[in-house]
Design a protein that fits this description.
alpha+beta, Jelly Rolls, Arc Repressor Mutant, subunit A, five-stranded antiparallel β-sheet, three-stranded antiparallel β-sheet, 13 helices, 10 strands, about 50% helix
Length: about 300
């Protein structure tokens, strides 16, 4: 089983705007339950704010609590799923990269820290006042989306930009701005992550990526260390481990096939690598997930 990649037009209703979607969260879940009931990824950028409800949000095997005041951000390619113990409410919108960046030629989405790198936390917790203020802006977009006013698209994009600016200020409120990385380092890290996503199956050494970026391996390590306090090797290994977990949990391939798909010389090498990075073997992870699924089935089965 492959992880489904959802596209914006799968969510569109009669009231639509190309490459953009917004809805109240409760309506979004009700209308699209068949699409979002299982783990999936997107080909767009997503932002959601919660005003009610409790639950959990799993993003690339990390679990985060859902509660009022939480804001979540997702970049294309990230795998996620929702689980709620009480009815959620709030607003959700998503858009393509082009929808935003074609209107802001000098300001790209990676300028915002929550979209800058997969290494940055995909969530933010706001106090009541900021939640209320930002929710009103989401609501304004929602109303504009369902009307046919002049310059509708431009107003929506400007409102999105205003929301992103406010969220960036809150996201970086406790950061030392003097220590924020330079724009050139940000661009290198962004391009590195894209290269790793495209090539990690076959290319596992920093030199390949440094050559592609036309910089030395030493400088590449300096950039990664300065921006996210990791080494290039660690960044590559994390991407391999993430894909390993996705394949172990969401595909029907056996472990030997998965190690071959990831271009390891044999399963033994893959297993040692996996255990070194995660502290557990691939077999243990597979059994653990199987037990969780069985327990969930038994506890949710009707008498």
């Amino acid at each position: 089983m492959k992880i489904p990649v959802l596209k914006i037009n799968q969510f569109q209703e009669s009231e639509s705007l190309k490459d953009f979607y917004i809805n109240t969260f409760s309506s979004h879940v009700a209308l699209n339950s068949k699409l979002i009931v299982k783990p999936h990824s997107h080909n767009f950028y997503l932002c959601v704010i919660f005003t009610e409800g409790l639950g959990s949000h799993e993003i690339d095997f990390n679990s985060y609590a859902v509660q009022p005041g939480k804001v979540f951000f997702l970049k294309p390619g990230q795998t996620h799923s929702w689980s709620f113990s009480t009815k959620p409410e709030g607003y959700i919108f998503f858009h393509s990269q082009e929808f935003y960046e074609l209107k802001f030629l000098d300001h790209t989405l990676n300028s915002f820290p929550f979209y800058y790198s997969n290494q940055n936390p995909p969530l933010l917790e706001l106090d009541f006042a900021k939640t209320s203020n930002l929710t009103s802006k989401f609501e304004e977009i929602y109303k504009e989306f369902h009307q046919n006013n002049l310059l509708k698209e431009l107003k929506i994009i400007n409102l999105i930009n205003s929301i992103y600016i406010e969220l960036t200020r809150a996201y970086t409120a406790n950061m030392n701005t003097e220590k924020l990385v330079s724009h050139s380092y940000s661009i290198i890290l962004e391009n590195l992550e894209k290269l790793i996503n495209d090539n990690f199956y076959t290319e596992k050494l920093p030199k390949f990526y440094a050559d592609k970026l036309n910089i030395t391996t030493k400088h590449l390590n300096r950039v990664v260390q300065k921006t996210i306090n990791k080494t290039t090797n660690e960044l590559i290994a994390e991407r391999i481990i993430l894909e390993s977990k996705r394949l172990i949990i969401h595909s029907e391939n056996n472990l030997a096939s998965i190690s071959e798909m990831l271009n390891f010389s044999d399963y033994g090498y893959f297993s040692r690598f996996f255990k070194l990075k995660t502290g557990e073997t691939p077999i243990f992870l597979g059994k653990n997930i199987f037990n969780i699924i069985c327990f969930s089935f038994l506890t949710n089965r009707k008498p």
